[in-house]
Design brief:
By secondary structure, the chain is an alpha/beta fold. 38% of the residues lie in helices and 18% in strands. It contains 9 helices and 14 strands. The protein has helices at residues 13-24, 56-62, 82-99, 138-157, 179-188, 207-219, 238-249, 274-280, 288-302; strands at residues 4-8, 28-33, 47-50, 69-72, 107-113, 161-166, 168-170, 192-194, 201-202, 204-206, 227-230, 236-237, 253-255, 268-269. The strands form 4 sheets. The protein has a 7-stranded parallel sheet with strand order 3-2-1-4-5-6-11, sandwiched between helices. It has a 3-stranded mixed sheet with strand order 12-9-14. It has a two-stranded parallel sheet with strand order 7-10. The longest helix has 20 residues, at 138-157. It is globular and about 55 Å long. The N and C termini lie far apart (41 Å).
Length: 303
């Protein structure tokens, strides 16, 4: 029987890939966002609904159908706009949870972030606790408050929701405001492009693996009220990543050390993914070299 899924933020990078996967499964897909999709992320079989999740009236007016699954990928992407960031990632999430509280859905997936762990040392695991007052970024505070609200509703109302905390996801059709596309573009342009020293360690997960984890989480009938890390689980030194991309493309002039690390930046950031394996039977399948090759090939075609 075909499932009906509502993807909040369905016009974004992850939203596009999730929608495409759901279409391949012959699910009925509806996307919610504040803007229409870019040409590179438009899917003809998706129903696009324009609304602002910060505004409860918009949700009440425009979300009429019944859905089996809800995935919340929504939220303002420019984190320098602190008020909009907080309202969309925190208040918007609460509005959605409240709206679907008594709608008889099968699963609500809140897509969180590794920044919710704050300064907890890696490998970060789901038992680590953080207080919002200890988080530096507005985005991190908003995400953690949304997580706590969902877990509370699970306990008080048996709300069928889970939270996945993503690490650095990369792949085709990502905007040029993320580290992997920035590096690839700089190399393809054969330009001098500024970088940090590259001595920090980060976790990189190919988008197909992230989407598979989301699908498995939605379909897991006995899994509710959980936080689950989704990442590759084996960090890579950023400088090595930059040099690998440069080697594959055979172009590019990275200027290491031109961008200073923030004072609050964590040197080593990666997850413990044992819980994802135990609860979802999920493990990443795409090797970094394979994922990078696919991603580079995509950008070669559009640049």
């Amino acid at each position: 029987m075909s499932k009906k899924i509502l993807i909040i933020g369905g016009t974004g990078f992850l939203g596009y890939h999730l929608a495409k996967k759901c279409i391949s499964k012959k699910w009925d897909v509806t996307s919610v966002s504040i803007n229409s999709p870019k040409t590179i992320r438009f899917l003809p079989k998706v129903k696009y609904v324009i609304l602002d999740i910060i505004k409860k009236k918009h949700i009440l007016k425009k979300i009429k159908s019944n859905y089996d699954y809800i995935v919340n990928l929504g939220g303002y992407v420019n984190h320098n706009e602190k008020l909009k960031t907080f309202q969309s990632h925190c208040n918007g999430s609460k509005n959605l949870i409240d709206f679907f509280l008594n709608k008889n859905i099968e699963s609500f997936l809140q897509v969180g972030s590794c920044v919710e762990y704050g300064i907890n040392k890696s490998p970060q695991n789901e038992k680590m606790s953080t207080k919002t007052k200890d988080l530096v970024s507005t985005y991190g505070k908003a995400k953690l408050l949304a997580t706590n609200y969902l877990l509370k509703k699970n306990k008080t109302h048996n709300f069928p929701g889970n939270v996945i905390r993503l690490y650095s996801v990369y792949g085709p059709r990502q905007d040029f405001n993320r580290i992997i596309p920035i590096i690839i573009k700089g190399c393809l342009d054969n330009s001098n492009f500024p970088c940090s020293s590259g001595n920090q360690f980060r976790d990189f997960l190919y988008v197909d693996d992230a989407i598979n984890a989301m699908i498995m989480c939605l379909k897991s009938k006995n899994l509710h009220g959980e936080i689950i890390n989704i990442g590759y689980g084996r960090p890579k030194k950023v400088k090595k990543v930059i040099n690998l991309i440069k080697k594959v493309i055979n172009l590019g002039k990275p200027l290491f050390g031109k961008i200073l690390m923030r004072k609050d930046e964590i040197h080593s950031l990666y997850p413990d993914i044992k819980k994802a394996n135990k609860k979802l039977y999920w493990m990443p399948k795409v090797k970094f070299s394979e994922g990078i090759a696919k991603t580079i090939n995509y950008y070669k075609k559009i640049l």
